[in-house]
Design a protein that fits this description.
The chain is 0% helix and 45% strand. The two termini are 19 Å apart. With 151 residues, the protein is an all-beta fold. It has a single domain, classed as Jelly Rolls (Sandwich), CATH 2.60.120.
């Protein structure tokens, strides 16, 4: 399996801050042009041809008791301006530390169709402080696409 770096929204993105929100390190632009050069939506997920994967690469740990878990959303926007992104779908909600072990797939499914120009992931943590934890998110054409995670 080959991974295209341009289709990765998070690449071992670390979470070691207080419980808040973090968007992915890479926003993707699934918009192209038609044969006449006019910009148009690609309908990236239409027909279920593209799949979104979200997986833990480093186990999440916290010295403090958890008050919730991790929520993962996909967002879209017509621009890359930070405040312009809006939620498309919640992919996972309230995933606890027990479910955030290395190699755990948080989400694997079809990319929603008819997305806006830019897409990204939004991670919301509900704990005081993570002492470790990292996530990767990518798009592929294969629902079983999963690169190996080595110790």
């Amino acid at each position: 399996m080959l991974n295209d770096g341009d289709l990765r929204m998070s690449d071992a993105q670390a979470f070691t801050s207080t419980g808040d929100q973090a968007s992915t390190t890479n926003a993707l632009n699934p918009v192209g042009k038609d044969v006449w050069g006019t910009a148009k939506k690609q309908n990236a997920g239409e027909g279920g041809g593209l799949f979104l994967h979200v997986r833990v690469t480093t186990a999440f740990t916290s010295a403090a008791p958890l008050t919730g878990g991790l929520t993962v959303k996909i967002q879209e926007s017509p621009t890359t301006t930070a405040g312009s992104f809006s939620d498309v779908s919640t992919l996972a909600s309230g995933v606890t530390r027990v479910g955030l072990t290395k190699g755990t797939e948080i989400y694997r499914g079809s990319l929603p169709a008819d997305l806006d120009k830019y897409i990204r992931m939004l991670y919301t943590t509900a704990t005081t402080v993570w002492t470790a934890g990292a996530i990767e998110a990518w798009i592929s054409t294969d629902p079983s696409d999963a690169k190996a995670i080595y110790p």
